[in-house]
Amino acid sequence: MFKPTQNIDTAFRAMRLLTMVIVIASLFVNVYAIHESNRLAARMQERVYVLASGKAMEALAGNRKDNLGVEARDHVAMFHTWFFSLDPDEKVIQANIKRALYLADASAKHQYDDLAETGYIAGIISGNVSQQITVDSITLNTIAEPYVFKCFSTLKIIRPTSIATRNLITQGSLRGISRSDHNPHGFLIERWEITENKDLKIENR
């Protein structure tokens, strides 16, 4: 008479134990799944897609300080490339100077105004002169803002009858500002000045 009752009681205890194991296992799986989902979502938020030439390329987002030196030097190089790359075409000159002036303060505008007032820009156009710059190196102090830099470049002035190679050295400082389409690195060049601009050689064409 008691044996069936004992079997039912044993089966009930076994069923209860099995149910508890299943519930605990389900809780563990749910917690693990939520944790992994959060990790995946965090990793996805670190991904940045850059659109270049109609193609989306993946980049990794990081702390600005990790790439401060690289971005600052590229900003300085871009400014010099646009400011000093001139061709005998007024529209090309204006477009390049406009891009350059988005990256610097009034000190760059003063330098351009001086070139225009002395007739240098008009001479480029009327004389069919092209000007090309190669940025050789940039020294940069990133310890504290504003970041002081010095840019060493080689300037080629191509005239119909000759090619002049000049040594160009400039200096200034960088201040962090908001990024924009016109200023993708988010820096502004301040107190920019040309400290050396002398001929290295002149070749006949």
UniProtKB/TrEMBL annotation:
UniProt-listed InterPro entries: Conjug_transposon_TraK (IPR022276)
Protein name as annotated: Bacteroides conjugative transposon TraK protein
